Amino acid sequence: MSSTIQVRNDERLRLAGALLAAGEWPEYEQTVKAYKAHRVADAAHKYFAPHREHPAVAGAQALAGKGEGLGTLYGHALNATWPASIPAEDFQSAAKAADFWAETQAEWQAAETEAKEVVTRADLGQFLDDLFGLQTRQLIFVPNLLFPGRQSVATSSPGEVVVALHPPIAWGTSHPWKYNERPDEVMAKLSEAFARFLFEEAASAALQPHAEAFALAAATLFLRQSEGEAAGDQFMVMEKKTRGLKNLPAVVVALAPILADRRAGKYAGFADYADHLQF
Fold it and tell me: What is the pTM of this model?
């Protein structure tokens, strides 16, 4: 039986997004590259900003850094393992986060419905099983209408691998698209995020620097399978240009036969073909 991608809202992860919304993160994202945040994110920034001096906000910002600590931050939220430097539950009470969740409940429910529609388009769970071996943890897609609004966040618990993914960014001053308005883009980012997380968990130290290229190559192959050759190749060309990964097409060429061999039963899992990867 193959893995499936489940979609759910998760107030635990919203708390991590609220901590970012209250502090300097929204402004930081705009300095990296300007974009129009989701209207819930904008509302959260205004709602939680009066509590920006709460110690949990500074602690969350310090941990998040320039993005490298987001997985750890969201991991604390998912597993309720907040360190003393991030008294998140006190912030949640002081800022009356539950009131904001109630005010925006319709937006969250709509996002969950749209995301569920998207994941039924193609069997990403089976693709990831084909690539890494049958997963023993549930794969979860959590819609993220808060922050970060420009990058996905992957984290895990003993029983789950979770990707929090924002809606597709729109052009100019428009709010982001709905998930089901850009399903191919959502599935590309989702497959990239899961593939990168699973690669970083399983790969040796020597392979770790190649996580981005591997994940993008995996997403390219998934898009070719689910949306057609043209969609996969367009994604590959755009990501190669955007991220400056000149070797991405070569990684795709190298990974494709390995994936085919995995499906034919040549390799038991990632560890059996890791040494054959070329970057």
Answer: 0.96
Q: Is the dihedral of CA 267, 273, 278, 279 positive or negative?
A: positive
The predicted-structure confidence for 120-148, as pLDDT tens digits, reads as follows 999 999 999 999 999 999 999 999 999 99
